[in-house]
Specification:
globular; Uridine Diphospho-n-acetylenolpyruvylglucosamine Reductase, domain 3; CBS-domain; 3 domains; alpha+beta; four-stranded mixed sheet; single chain
């Protein structure tokens, strides 16, 4: 009978080809891993990492200030001391032979808290003087005072030392200033923990900077200047005796933006007239701070 034939049939072949539940879950997991792997954007370089962070800033997942700090921290890992040190010509030093009435006015005028102490010359570093260690002068008087009794050992480092390594040493050894020497052993400058932190978070102003708070241009080296982007072009030209055009823009930042053709990021460089401009700080809306140096004009050959 037809009914007996249907009951004697083996189970449908379709059920034997259907994947088991465990195999199905494994297949779905592999497919999901491939899908998410295709969309994952693990950075392969520093530039790719910055692009991801900038995208996060554009989507308001990271604010502009945090973006600037992250960029600064990444830059510090690739910078060397020679790029940010206070040059030898700008150092404020105290001679070991000086009497308090000779070096105290210099210390008060500078507003610094630490000073290299030298012997016969700047290359003869004897130690570091902390301004706070001069307080006993108030109690003991000048007669009992000996400078060599209060100076601290100087930390000597090469120009090629990387900033991230130096920052770690500053923190671990709890010192805030180091003397920088060149390949021949001569003193080429000094660097402080504040100099490194400013590379990360931007300019740090304290109560000693009040006189310069309203200044748009600050000299930091023989041919090196910190210039606020909001500096009026007229003031810039007057300071540098230059002739940058102010027909289209009122500020230096406007000229620099036009020169780049886009909103530049930290450490981007452009040349304008006889000047080289490097962006020190910019957010996602405008440029804030620039480092400026005047380019040397090539010597014209006769004929």
């Amino acid at each position: 009978m037809a009914t007996s034939m249907t009951t004697d049939e083996p189970p449908s072949s379709q059920s034997s080809s259907r994947p088991r539940s465990g195999e199905k879950r494994a297949g779905e997991k592999n497919w999901l891993e491939k899908l998410f792997g295709a969309f994952s954007a693990e950075p392969k370089s520093r530039d790719e990492l910055l692009d991801i962070i900038k995208d996060a800033a554009e989507n308001q997942l990271v604010d502009a200030e945090a973006l600037s700090i992250i960029e600064g921290a990444l830059d510090v890992s690739s910078q060397q001391v020679r790029e940010i040190m206070i040059p030898r010509s700008q150092m404020v030093v105290v001679s070991l032979q000086d009497k308090p009435e000779e070096f105290l006015p210099k210390i008060i005028e500078s507003g610094h808290s630490r000073f290299p102490v030298i012997g016969d010359s700047v290359d003869d570093i004897r130690g570091i003087l902390l301004a706070k260690d001069l307080l006993p002068l108030v109690l003991k008087g000048v007669e009992d005072f000996q400078l060599e009794d209060i100076i601290r050992p100087a930390n000597i480092i090469p120009e090629s030392k990387r900033l991230n390594i130096l920052l770690r040493e500053f923190r671990e050894n709890r010192y805030h200033m180091a003397v920088v020497i060149d390949e021949y052993g001569g003193v080429s400058g000094v660097v402080t923990i504040e100099d490194i932190l400013e590379e990360i978070v931007g300019e740090i102003e304290d109560e000693t900077d009040e006189e310069e708070a309203d200044s748009f241009i600050r000299k930091v080296g023989d041919n090196d200047f910190i210039v606020k982007a909001l500096t009026p072009i007229e003031d810039f030209n007057e300071y540098f005796e230059s002739e940058l055009s102010d027909e289209e823009f009122d500020t230096v930042g406007g000229l620099i933006m036009q020169s780049f053709g886009h909103l530049p990021g930290r450490d981007e460089v452009t040349r304008l007239g006889d000047f080289m401009f490097r962006v020190l700080y910019a957010d996602n809306r405008q440029i804030h701070l620039l480092r400026v140096s005047r380019m040397e004009k090539p010597v014209e050959e006769d004929g």
